[in-house]
Amino acid sequence: MKSWQFKVGLAVIGWLAVQSNHAQAQLASTNELVRLKDVATVQGARSNQVTGLGLVVGLPGTGDSQQMRVTNRALENVIQRLNNIPPSELQGQILSRNTALVMVTCNLPPFVKPGQQVDVTLASIGDARAITNGVLLQSPLRAADGHTYVVAQGAVSTGGFQSTASGSATTKNNVLVGRVPNGGIVEREVPVTVVDATGHLFLNLLNPDFATSARSAAAINASGLALASPLDAGTIKCYVTSSYRDRVPELIARIEQLTVRPDHVAKVVIEERSGTVVMGANTRIDPVAISHGALVIKVETKTSVSQPAPFSTGTTTVVRNSNISVMEEPAKTLVLQSGATLGQLVKALNTLGVKPREMISIIQNIKAAGALNAQLELI
User: Fold this and answer.
1) pLDDT digits over 52-109, tens only?
2) Do residue 251 and residue 278 come from a single domain?
3) Greatest mean pLDDT among 24-28, 77-81, 162-166, 295-299
4) According to the 3-state scheme, what is the secondary structure of the chain?
5) Tens digit of each residue's pLDDT (9 = 90 or more) over 270-284
């Protein structure tokens, strides 16, 4: 038996209207007050990336193979440096799979001082099978300026395991990437400047927005802590007065505790692969009518064999019988009045039994008709 089933979904978008200013005011009032600390950062107080090469030793035969000559050469250099052994005596003597060459990385937070410890991450760059339970030898980590800022060493933790037996292998998590908690020691401080020569500090918004920038500057001016002005959608310029010139950390701490009502652009994010829709529940849509129905066409073919009568001259024949059935569900119509939110639309569509992928098509059609007052982003 062969069967084909086709489903056709219909979304008809109706009329448009302009959203009222009263509805916009109601939407703005729903935003909560948040701290400036949660929506902005201080310019200059940033992390820095440092990177280096390292060797992980003590692996139970899961390290790099002999084809990775650079690994053997690096290990020879380490032994030669520590024991002053001539290179001629070491050449070709190290034939172990207990060592792996790794790339060591670290995000150095701002304001860390020499002697403090940080976490480092390492990843195999050779043909090692696993670096679990290995030990990272001392590895200098350098920044883009070529200076060494961190020295890393310690036991490697991958959070997984790998087991092999009789040609079968079982692996949990990634055993080629690991971490050394508190394995990096800061050797050099990264200079941090938050106040420039003119006595200004700058705040950078995490989500640039002109309204949020203006409100943040107004909140700082109202507090009397500094003289602030918005430079653009993402930057607020603050003049540090003489009373706080020698107490900049205290000033920043007080500014970060100020509250502001952030604004943002309404956005709907759709992932068609999984049928996921992420949206703000208060995203407004214009008056719209939606008609949704389903037409199901089912075609079935049955194959049978027709046998001739005994002792006749007929031949066996294959006979195909087709049956076509059509079932159309009654259309379901939904009408939304002015000021309705997208959250109310989705709730109403769920009551109609609309599937996620059909809901995505409806939202896309609403946007195409100009009735959705939000940005539509497909990922």
Assistant:
1) 999 999 998 889 988 888 888 888 788 877 777 766 666 666 667 899 999 999 999 9
2) no
3) 77-81
4) CEEEEEEEEEEEECCCCCCCHHHHHHHHHCCCCEEHHHHEEECCCCCEEEEEEEEEECCCCCCCCCCCHHHHHHHHHHHHHHHCCCHHHHCCCCCCCCCEEEEEEEEECCCCCCCCEEEEEEEECCCCCCCCCCEEEEEEEECCCCCEEEEEEEECECCCEEEEECCEEEEECCCCEEEEEEEEEECCCCCCCCCCCCCEEEEEECCCCHHHHHHHHHHHHHHCCCEEEECCCCEEEEECCHHHCCCHHHHHHHHHCCEECCCCCCEEEEECCCCEEEECCCCEECCEEEEEEEEEEEEEEEEEEECCCCCCCCCCEEEEEEEEEEEECCCEEEEECCCCEHHHHHHHHHHCCCCHHHHHHHHHHHHHCCCECCEEEEC
5) 887 777 777 766 677
Asked if the structure places residue 20 within a domain, the reply is yes
Residue 200 has pLDDT above 90, yes or no: yes
Statement to judge: residues 253 and 345 lie in one domain: no
Q: How many structural domains comprise the chain?
A: 3
